[in-house]
Amino acid sequence: MNKISKIPDGFLVEKSLSDEQMELLIAQINRFYELREKNIELDKVKVDDRGLIFLNEGTIIHGISSFKVGVLENIQKIGIITGQALGIPEDGETFYCADFHRVDRDMAMDEFNRGFTYIDGRCPFGNGRRGAMTLAFVINPIKEGEELLSYDCYRDTTNGIITRGFTNERGLLDNSNKLSSILYGVPSNLINGIVLGNRLLENKDVLNLIIKLFPKCYISSIDGVIIYNPEIDMKYSEVVELRASKYVLNFQKKLMEEELARSKNETNKIKKLYDDFIEQVIQNCPEEEVARLLMENKIYQGTMEQVLEYVKSVKNNCDERKKSTKL
Asked: N or C: which end of the chain has fewer CB within 10 A?
């Protein structure tokens, strides 16, 4: 490749840079495109003993807020780069960098998903409902990318500290062990996998397009269920579609079960309030009036004698409970 000696045309320079920083940024851009042109053999899909995606410490993940074909084509062609390289102003604190979530220790993807707390609408991880129309790109740490990825403003290394000078340091987020921000960005040939939000997994056209754009990348659900494995599938097929459909159905079943449990819990709360109210009425009102009220409102069915007997038994039980609590 022909190396550049100045910032490319169209690059939006916002935060002023020193001559030394300008040289470092130009060197990183050259490093990016040199790596982009290499034929890199990515790691095989790594799974745990349940068959779910396993993430190594140092894996970085970049989410995009919505499914846009143009954005995906640009990532496939180039990679994940700072918005300023496309003339887009920086909306945060990490000028000249591309932002990522970071896996801070070895873990399965479902564990990462359970611990995902960012509510920014830019990643599919979480409860499966928030971010359901988003997707994320997964980059495993590999030897070929070590130098490029070392320019990470959240790392306390020499290159990390150098990169921090490009940012608004006071605006950097906490939990630095779970964040990464790479100077300029990461080329597309370092992307290992793509995580699709649950609503996107429902759309076979979306799934087909993602596979066509990124045939060498695995596709998974937010909890690590493999939908497309490039080592096995090679292209979109009925098998891939069936995996996606099965996952979606299982997730919808889970949502229904959660909703039923919530409704049951709410019903039990209302029933308890109702029972407590009836007890208070029985304890504090004349027995015959209470019995008539229960019969007229069909709260208790039977003869007047039977309803009176019920009222007396409830009152006696309440009195017994009061006595036992005093002892």
From this structure: C
Q: How many Cα atoms occupy the beta-carbon half-sphere of 137 within 13 Å?
A: 27
Burial of 243 (0-12, 13-18, 19+ CB in 10 A): buried
Q: Which residue has the tokens 């080329």?
A: 187
Strands 218-220 and 193-196: parallel
- pLDDT tens across 50-72, in order? 999 999 999 999 999 878 899 99
Q: Which of 86-95, 161-170, 191-200, 207-216 has the lowest mean pLDDT?
A: 86-95
Tell me which of 306 and 21 has the higher pLDDT. 21
Amino acid at 34: E
pTM for this prediction: 0.82
Given pLDDT bands bounded at 50, 70 and 90, which one contains residue 327? low
- Amino acid at position 179, single letter: L
CB atoms within 10 A of CB 156: 9
Burial 11-29 (b: 16+ CB within 10 A, else e): bbeeeebeeebeebbbebb
Count of all residues that appear for the chain in the document: 327
Beta-carbon-side half-sphere exposure of residue 232 (alpha carbons within 13 Å): 10
Q: Select from 320, 101, 172, 288 the least CA-distant residue to 161.
A: 172
**Interval 270-282 mean pLDDT:** 80
d(CA 44, CA 59): 14
DSSP character for 226?
A: E
In a 10 Å sphere around its CB, with 0-12 CB exposed, 13-18 middle and 19+ buried, how is residue 299 labelled?
A: middle
Identify the bridge partners of residue 101 per DSSP, sorted by sequence position: 61, 179
Tell me the one-letter amino acid at 213: L
Q: How far apart are CA 148 and CA 245, in angstroms?
A: 38
Q: Which ranges of the chain does DSSP label H, i.e. alpha helix?
A: 19-36, 69-77, 109-114, 146-149, 158-164, 198-201, 204-213, 238-284, 287-296, 304-326
DSSP annotation of 80 reads E
Percent of the chain with pLDDT over 90: 56
Q: Residue 79: left if φ>0, alpha if ψ -120 to 50, beta else—which one? A: left
